[in-house]
Amino acid sequence: MVVEPGGKAQHLTAPRAVLFDWDNTLVDNWASIHDALNTTFEAMGQSTWSLAEVRARVRSSARDTFPALFGDRAAAASAIFYDRLKRAHLETLRELPGATALLEMLAAGPCYLAVVSNKRGDFLRREATQLGWNTCFGRLVGAGDAEEDKPSAAPITLALKESGIEAGTDVWYVGDAMIDIECARNAGCVAVLVGDGHGSETAQADPDIRLADLTALAMLFTTQ
Q1: Which of 31, 54, 77, 197 could serve as a FRET partner for 16 with CA atoms 20 to 30 Å apart?
Q2: Domain limits at 144?
Q3: Claim to verify: residue 57 and residue 133 sit in the same structural domain
């Protein structure tokens, strides 16, 4: 297989496993995240963020970011955030164009599929079940499931644990942000960036594969 990642040709073998980020890669659920985060800011007496700011700034898990945002009140802030999030996250959940078709195609083939997300694991698994996608994946790994969250390699290691597949160049990790590229690199996997990224954040990124959207990723597999 020959692709054009960041302007340079790479020869890559077809993957044995494809792992996906969740938010902004397969689904859009920013409305509930925005609402829950601003509810938390208000409760803590802090300034709220616009939806654009949330989209641009939310990458790491709450476990990793809340101590910096809320200091010694991080545990209380986390409780407020997740209490608010659980009220509406299934109602605001939307799949991104091409996601169902891609997952159904890959699930019917030989690839092992899993999710590695910085959304808390119980919320991630509820959303996958809501969309009827839970049966597509061998494992859904969210924040708090592994010893460390993305960009650590630990969640990828956990996602592959019972698959019989080792992390390496025959494992692709598909995401939309720099943290996903970093996670793939830390695990020694192929980094696949989908979408237009996040402005300057990914403008200079150097993934192994860069694709416009999930439909383009599906076409890449159909041409193998």
Answers
A1: 197
A2: 2-28+94-222
A3: no
